[in-house]
From TrEMBL, chain A:
It comes from the Bacteria. InterPro entries: AAA+_ATPase, ABC_transporter-like_ATP-bd, ABC_transporter-like_CS, ABC_transporter_ATP-bind, P-loop_NTPase. The keyword Ribosomal protein does not apply. Keywords: ATP-binding, Cell inner membrane, Cell membrane, Hydrolase, Membrane, Nucleotide-binding, Translocase, Transport. The keyword 4Fe-4S does not apply. Its EC number is 3.6.3.36. It comes from Mameliella alba. This is Taurine import ATP-binding protein TauB. Belongs to the ABC transporter superfamily. SUPFAM superfamilies: P-loop containing nucleoside triphosphate hydrolases (SSF52540). GO terms for molecular function: ATP binding; ATP hydrolysis activity.
Amino acid sequence: MSGLSIDNLSMRFDLPNGTSVQALKDVSLQLAEGELLSVLGPSGCGKTTLLNIVAGFLAPTEGQITLNGHVVKGPDAERGMVFQQGALFEWMNVRDNVSFGPRMAGKRKRDWGQHVDHLLDVVGLRDFKEKAVYELSGGMQQRVALARCLANDPDVILMDEPLGALDALTREKMQGLVLKLWKETGKTIILITHSVEEALLLGERLLVMAPRPGRIHREYRLPFADMGVNADLREVKKHPDFGQRREEILGMIWDMEEEIMGRAEESA
Amino acid sequence: MIVFAIYIAIFVVSFFVVKFVVHKTATDYTSLKTVTFGDESAVTPNRIASVISVLSIFLLWGAFTGSSYVPRFLHAPGPFIGDAVFTYTAEAEGQAPDDATVTVRVFEVGTDVDDPKVAPGEGWAKNDVDTVGAWRSGLIRVDRNDEFGRSDGHKIVAVNGQPIAPGQSVQTEFGRVGMSPKGTLNFEPAKGWQMEPIWLPPPEAVWQRLKETARDGYRDSTLAAHLWFSLKRVIQGFFLGALVGIPLGYAMGLSNWFRGWFDPIVEFMRPVPPLALIPLVIIWAGIGEKGKVILLFLAALWIMAIAARAGVSGVAISKVHAAYSLGASKFQIMRHVIVPNSLPEIFTGARVAMGVCWGTVVAAELVAAEKGTGMMIMVASKFQLTDIVLMGIILIGIIGFGIDILMRMAEKALVPWKGRV
C-alpha cells in the first residue's frame, strides 16, 4: 500500500489559561504517490499544524498518518521539509547544505556527488556551490532549500509557505521551478500557501480548510498544475477557468474571515 | 578643573579646525546621504578625531608635568624655584617693632642645596635664611637669631607689611606665608599648575621606568614575567571555565532536568561579582596560583554557561526540524546544527569572560600575590613609585585591549556568518 493516508486526525491542546484549542478536527485525506496537493485557508485553520503532524514534529491527539503502509511516529528522512525561511545552515556552503542528508546517512561523496551537482544544476546554482549561504538572495536560498530536500530523495515533500517571503517576480519563477521539479522527480508534495493563485497553480489537488476547529472545507481537483508543466504560468493564469476558480475560492475565504470577525465581535 | 576646561577647548577648537581644513572628497554611498543625524549607520568614527584625542591626552599629560617631550612654551607654569624673599615685622617687650627679611631658597627635591648668603642687617631683628623643596613647605623660626627671643615676648605681627596672627596667612609673590597656632612662620612656595612627579610623573619618566623594569625587573621578576604570570592565570582560568561552562550551558539548553537543577545556581552566581569571592578563595586556597585560577575559573564559568545556554536557545527551531527531516540523528544535530549555531553566542560570551577575567586577575593580585601585574603596581604604590603604577595601568589596558582584538579576529575567522543571518 503506497501513498500517504491521513485518517481522522484531531489535534487538541490545553492553553495555560485553562481553555483548550481544537486546532484540527477529524481531518481525513488520501494522497496517492506523485500527487501534488496545495492547502489553503485563513490563518488559524490548522494548515501548519497539519503539516507539522505529517512531518512528525507534532503528535495528533486522535487519528494517525500512514505512509507506504507504516504509521508515522516522528520526523524521518522519508518526509522532507521546506520552510518559509530556508532554515539553511549558515556554517556550511551551498554544496554542504545540499548534501547534508546523504552525508548524515553516512554516504560517501562518490555516492552523492553527481546527484548533488545535478540538483544544483537544476535549481540553477551550479556556480554558487562554494558560496556561503548568507551571501545568497532570498530566492537563491529557497532554491538551496529545495535542492537540499531533493538530495535526500524523500517519498513526500512538505512545503510550509516556501515562497511566502519572496518578492512577486522571484515567486513566479520559483513556482515554475516547483512544478518542474515535481514533474521531473514524481514526488508526492504537500504545499501550504496563503496565496490563492499559487494554490491554484501548484495544486493538482487543492484543499481549502476552515478554522475553529480546523477542518477540511472543500476539495478540488484542478488541471492547472498539469497545464503549467508544459506552458508558461502566465498563460495558465489567463485561462477562463482559472479566474473563475480564483474568485470562487477568494470569496469562500473572505466569508470565513468575515465569520471569524463576527464571532470575535459577538464575544467582545 | 583647568585641565578639563583646556581639554574641552581642544575638543571644540580641533573640531572646527578639522572641519574647516579637511574637505572630504568621498563619493561613497554614505557621503551622499542627506540625513545623517539619527542614522546610526552613517556615523563612523572620525579617525582624525581619534588621533587628536590621543595626542591631546599626551599633550596635557606632558604640559602639566613639565615633560621634555612637550615644547617648553606649552608647559603649564611650574613650581617656583629660586630665592624667595619676604619681610616680617616683630615685636618684643619694651622694644620698638623691627623689620627683617627672610630669604628662602626653593630647590628641586633631589638636588643639593646650600643656604643662601645674606647679611644679618640692622636692628634687633636679624635677617634669616632657609631652604625648602619645591611643592613642600617648611617652618621658619625667625626669632632664633633675633636679639630678643620668645622669652622676651618675641612676636611676629606682620609679613610684607600685612598684619598676621596665629592661624592666618599672607600671600606673597613667591608663595604663602602662614603662621602656626604657636606663632611660628611657615613658608609654602608657589606650586604653579604642574603636578608633582609623586602624583603624576611625566611621560618620559614612565617610559624610562618601562625600559628599566623590562631590563632589570621589579621585585625579583622581570616585567615580562609579571605580565606573563597575570596572562597565564587568565588563560588557565578562562579555559577551565569554558571547559566546564560550555557543556553545562549546553546541558541546560537541552534538558529540563539540567535547566531546573542549575538555574538557581547560575542565576544566583551570575550577579555575584568575582571580586567578592576573593576573600573566600584566599581563605580556601591561599594566595598562590591555585587560588587565582579557581577565582578566574569561577569568573568565567557562569558567563560561559549562560552564553552556551543562550546559544542553544537561539537555534531556530526550523533548522532543527530541517535536520531531523533530513535524517540526522540527535548526535548529528548536536554536532552539525546546535554547536555551530551557538558559536556566535559563545564567542560573545568568551569576549566578555576574557575581559572579566583580566579585570579580576589584576584585582586579585592587588589583594595578594607574589608575582603579577597587579602585585607590581600595588607594591609600587606603597613606595610611592607612581611611574611604575602608571606604567602598570597602561600595560594592563594595552593587554586587555589586545585580548579583545584577538578574540574579535578569531570570531571573524570562525563565525563569519555572525550578524549576517
